[in-house]
C-alpha cells in the first residue's frame, strides 16, 4: 500500500489548526514536517513551537524531515516534541552511522535523504539500518518546484539496492508530486509520497487526497 504524507510546509499558517484537522479526517497516512535552518538549505521554515503545536492536534504518524546542519544536537528534542521518525540528509551528516544510531536509540524510525545530485550507492553501507530512504525530486529548500524526471530511474535503482541488501527500508519521494505523476511514482517503486502545494492549493484538499490514494495503489 502506498502511503501519502501531506507536507504542512504548504499549509495555511494563519489557520494551521484547520489544515491539521483536515489531514486528520482525510485518507492521508502521515504528516510530513520539513525543518529548515537557513544553513544547509537557503530557507528557514519553522522550529520547535510549530512541531509541539502540531503534536497536540495531529492524530497520525509525524514524519520529520531535517534539512539542517548538526542534526545530532536536536534528536532528543524532536523526540520529546512528538516526532515519530527523523530523516537526515546524507550531505549534512559527517558521521552518518552515528546519527542513525542516535535516532534509533530514541525509539524513532530513521531515514536518510538524498539530494537530486547524490547517487543512491552512497547508501550501500548503511541502507540495511534504515527505515526510510527519501529521494528528493526537487532541490531542497522551497516548495512548488518542478519535478526532476531522473527521479524515476533513481527510485528503480533504490529498489534494486534494497533488494540486494535485504533491507526493509521504504522509498519516499518528496518534491513536485502531483496528480499527473503519482501513479508512475508508485508503479516505479515508491512507497511513501510527499505532496504539499498539490494538496493544499487545490480547491478541495480532502478530495485531492482521496484522488491521490485511489491512483497510487
Describe this structure in words.
This is Ribulose-phosphate 3-epimerase. The active site is at residues 34, 174. Pathway: Carbohydrate degradation. With 217 residues, the protein is an alpha/beta fold. It has a single domain (3-215), classed as TIM Barrel, CATH 3.20.20.70. Helix content is 33%, strand content 20%. Strands 1-8-7-6-5-4-3-2 form an eight-stranded parallel beta sheet. The chain is globular and about 45 Å long.
Provide the spatial order of strands within the biggest beta sheet: 1-8-7-6-5-4-3-2
Helix content: 25-40%
| Amino-to-carboxy terminus distance | 6 Å
Judged by helices, strands and strand pairing, the structural class is: alpha/beta
Provide the number of structural domains: 1
Summed up, the helix count is 8
The radius of gyration computed from the alpha-carbon positions, rounded to a whole number of angstroms, is: 16 Å
Catalytic activity: D-ribulose 5-phosphate = D-xylulose 5-phosphate
Protein name: Ribulose-phosphate 3-epimerase
Cofactor: Fe(2+); Zn(2+); a divalent metal cation; Mn(2+)
Pathway: Carbohydrate degradation
SSE layout and pairings?
Blueprint: E1 3-6, H1 16-25, E2 30-36, H2 48-57, E3 61-67, H3 75-80, E4 85-89, H4 96-105, E5 109-114, E6 132-136, H5 151-164, E7 170-174, H6 182-188, E8 192-195, H7 197-200, H8 205-215
Parallel strand pairs: 1-8, 2-3, 3-4, 4-5, 5-6, 6-7, 7-8
Amino acid at each position: 500500500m502506498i502511503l501519502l504524507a501531506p507536507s504542512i510546509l504548504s499549509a495555511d499558517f494563519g489557520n494551521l489548526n484547520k489544515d491539521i484537522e483536515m489531514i486528520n479526517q482525510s485518507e492521508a497516512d502521515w504528516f510530513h514536517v520539513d525543518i529548515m535552518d537557513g544553513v544547509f538549505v537557503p530557507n528557514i521554515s519553522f522550529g520547535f513551537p510549530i512541531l509541539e503545536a502540531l503534536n497536540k492536534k495531529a492524530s497520525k504518524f509525524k514524519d520529520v524531515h531535517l534539512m539542517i546542519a548538526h542534526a545530532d544536537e536536536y534528536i532528543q528534542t524532536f523526540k520529546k516534541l512528538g516526532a515519530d521518525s527523523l530523516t537526515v540528509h546524507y550531505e549534512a551528516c559527517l558521521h552518518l552511522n552515528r546519527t542513525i544510531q542516535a535516532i534509533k536509540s530514541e525509539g524513532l524510525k530513521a531515514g536518510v535523504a538524498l539530494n537530486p545530485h547524490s547517487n543512491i550507492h552512497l547508501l550501500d553501507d548503511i541502507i540495511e539500518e534504515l527505515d526510510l530512504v527519501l529521494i528528493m525530486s526537487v532541490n531542497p529548500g522551497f516548495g512548488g518546484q518542478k519535478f526532476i524526471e531522473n527521479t524515476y530511474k533513481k527510485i528503480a535503482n533504490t529498489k534494486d539496492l534494497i533488494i540486494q541488501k535485504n533491507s526493509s527500508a521504504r522509498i519516499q519521494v518528496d518534491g513536485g508530486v502531483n496528480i499527473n505523476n503519482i501513479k508512475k511514482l508508485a508503479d516505479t517503486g515508491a512507497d511513501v509520497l510527499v505532496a504539499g502545494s498539490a494538496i493544499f492549493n487545490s480547491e478541495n484538499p480532502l478530495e485531492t487526497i482521496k484522488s491521490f490514494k485511489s491512483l497510487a495503489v
